[in-house]
Amino acid sequence: MQLLKWVLNLLLVCSMLQVFPLPLAQTICSEADRAALLGFKAKILKDSTGSLSSWVGKDCCGGDWEGVGCNPTGRVNTLALQIPERDSTLYMKGTLSSSLGSLQFLEVLVISGMKFITGPVPESLSNLSRLKQLVLEDNSLQGNIPSGLGRLSFLQTLSLAGNHFNGVVPLSLGNLRNLVMLNLGRNSLTGSIPSSFKNLVHLQSFDLSFNLLSGFVPEFLGQFHNITFIDLSNNQLSGHLPVSLFNLVTLSDLSLSHNQLTGSIPDQVGNLKSLTSLSLSHNKLIGPIPASISRLQKLWSLNLSRNGFSNPLPAISSKGVPSLLSIDLSFNNLSLGTVPNWIMDRQLSDVNLASCKLRGAFPKFRPDSLSSIDLSSNLLTGTISTHFTNMTSLQKLKLSNNQLKFDLSELKVPDGISSIDLHSNQVFGSLSSILNNRTSSFLEVIDVSNNLISGTIPEFTEGLSLKVLNIGSNKIAGQIPSSISNLIELERLDISRNQITGTIPASLGQVVKLQWLDLSINRLTGKIPTSLLGIHSLRHANFRANRLCGEIPQGRPYNIFPASAYAYNLCLCGKPLQPCKGKQQEMVQ
Q1: Do residues 538 and 557 make contact, with C-beta atoms less than 8 angstroms apart?
Q2: d(CA 495, CA 509)
Q3: Element (H or E) spanning 453, and its range?
Q4: Sign, Cα dihedral of 97, 99, 104, 106
Q5: C-alpha atoms less than 13 angstroms from C-alpha of 46 in its C-beta half-sphere
Q6: Closest to 269 in 3D by CA, of 229, 296, 298, 240
Q7: In this structure, is residue 361 part of a structural domain?
Q8: Distance CA 397, CA 399 (A)
Q9: Is the residue at 462 inside a domain?
Q10: Which residues contact 168 (CB under 8 A, 6 or more apart)?
Q11: Residue 43 — φ and ψ, nearest 5°?
């Protein structure tokens, strides 16, 4: 009888559920999780992203709370707040609340790109035992990396890059045996790479770049058989390249640049059959570049610049390194004489052979693919006037510190070129051609300083993109055109050591992005216009050795620049020089 009564009650409940079904809101988020999220929100003092303004109401799992995700039982398992790269207007300001450690079911925690979230990583995050992804990139977090993070045994992704962390890398992170991606780059971490990291055998991406790490590149990296990306660049690592590193057949990207590595490149480098990018620049490596590098079938970027590599350069056949697009052998102890055929005959995009003791006429590259050429600091001679006519992809041209001799007005460059650096050659002629409307609409950098250029400074039309204009140390005469105000993007202007006359135009004060200004050693007269006080970003100015007179603009930064910036003029006065005589008379009265 009791059983029958229980069955009847069950049927009654079921029938009521059909008539009055329970709302989906039964999966409303846990009150404890909601409180933890609001605790995080309370520590964010300003949110220009507007994300946290959506965190209202009782249901944090209903889809309205931006960045919050939940599991079917109403427990928060995802918190992902991320700002797109290069958006400087969006940020959060505040600290990370320890309440985040109460989100017991959290599997994904991403707070990235907020710029102004400061303070330490709360120790309570070590309690998030289900966490698989922890990404706190590009904030302003500081202090030590908590050793307790080593208890997050399910963690697969850990990125704390782009913060202000210091101290040593915790040994405990070596306990994270499920890690696939580890990024601690762009901090101020010190000490050596922990030996406990040998346990991280599942790593596919390993980035400790832009820190202050010392010691050796560890041999155990050769045990990471699944790894595709290693970046230890911009540290203070020393010692030889471990041979074990060159047995990683899955490795596609290796950067050890900007360290203090010594020794030579092992012949085993040819074993890296998946390698697409190799950067060993800015080290102390020596010896010849091994011929086995020609076996790297997928390599498209090779940067060995600023080391001590010496001849002979390997003789590579037309079938060697078939994917190569970018090569940089600049500033070694190489004495090439001419550009090797295996470089000349390829469809490369970037060729950088600065200070390789190249001699003679400018080499004839294949014109259809090159976007950047740097053959500076060599012994090239003759003209280059028509070499670039068909290089329609050319963006950057750097041929400074050579012995090139040609008329600048005859130089033909592609319409879309953005940077031309010809300083310290024997270039003559005028500036008018290189600054015409067709050529200069995309130009951002022009450096033709320390040449034999004459004529005058041409008028500047609207719509120019110039950020750097350096025409110093030439034989240019005439006046500074008032149309210089059209260079609204200009950040650096150097017309020093010429024969410029007339006054400094007041319109120069409209070039408000200017950071560097050098007008020294000319024949300028009149006053320094007070309109220059409108250039608030100026960090360096030099008016030395002209014929200027009158009061120096009395406002920052002009009145705090060193006196040497105004020396050897006719009668400049006012801070940082002596007071002007008129003001002295007022003081006497």
Answers
A1: yes
A2: 16
A3: strand 452-453
A4: negative
A5: 8
A6: 296
A7: no
A8: 7
A9: yes
A10: 144, 189, 190, 191, 194
A11: -85, -10
CB 412 within 8 A of CB 398: no
Residue 568: half-sphere exposure toward Cβ, Cα within 13 Å: 12
How many angstroms separate the CA atoms of 484 and 503, rounded? 13
Q: Which helix (H) or strand (E) holds 45?
A: strand 44-47
Helix, strand, coil: what percent of the chain each, to 5? 20, 20, 55
In this structure, what token pair is assigned to residue 294? 């020609």
Q: Within 10 Å of residue 314's Cβ, how many Cβ atoms?
A: 15
In a domain, 129, yes or no: no
Q: How far apart are CA 299 and CA 238, in angstroms?
A: 25
Integer Cα distance of 31 and 489 in angstroms: 53
Six-digit token string for 13: 């409940």
**Coil, strand or helix at 174:** helix
* Strand pairing class (260-261; 286-287): unpaired
Structure tokens at 559: 């009145």
The Cβ of residue 246 has, within 10 Å, a number of other Cβ atoms equal to 21
491: left (phi over 0), alpha (psi -120 to 50) or beta: alpha
Residue 361 contacts residue 382 (beta carbons within 8 Å)? yes
Kindly report the CATH number assigned to the domain that includes residue 556. Answer: 3.80.10.10
Phi, psi of 537 (to 5 degrees): -90, 0
User: CA 418 to CA 442: how far, in whole Å?
Assistant: 5
Closest CA to 479 of 507, 447, 514, 443: 507
**Tally of residues, the chain:** 589
Q: What distance in Å separates the CA atoms of residue 231 and residue 251, rounded to the nearest whole number?
A: 11
Report the distance separating Cα 68 and Cα 353, nearest Å. Answer: 51
The range of the structural domain enclosing residue 464 comes to 455-588
What is the pLDDT tens value at each position of the chain, 589 positions in all?
333 333 334 333 333 333 333 333 446 899 999 999 999 999 999 999 999 999 999 999 999 999 999 999 999 999 999 987 767 789 999 999 999 999 999 999 999 999 999 999 999 999 999 999 999 999 999 999 999 999 999 999 999 999 999 999 999 999 999 999 999 999 999 999 999 999 999 999 999 999 999 999 999 999 999 999 999 999 999 999 999 999 999 999 999 999 999 999 999 999 999 999 999 999 999 999 999 999 999 999 999 999 999 999 998 988 889 999 999 999 999 999 999 999 998 899 999 999 999 999 999 888 788 999 999 999 999 999 888 888 999 999 999 999 999 999 999 888 889 999 999 999 999 998 888 655 567 899 999 999 999 999 999 988 889 999 999 999 999 999 999 999 999 999 999 999 999 999 999 999 999 999 999 999 999 999 999 999 999 999 999 999 999 999 999 999 899 999 999 999 999 999 999 987 433 332 3
Q: Nearest CA to 397 among 370, 359, 429?
A: 370
Chain position carrying tokens 């280059």: 384
Beta-carbon contacts of residue 341 (< 8 Å; ≥ 6 apart): none
Cβ-contact 538, 508 below 8 angstroms = no
CB 457 within 8 A of CB 471: yes
Q: How many domains does the chain have?
A: 1
- What is the distance between the alpha carbons of residues 331 and 178, in angstroms, rounded to a whole number? 42
Asked whether residue 113 is domain-assigned, the answer is no
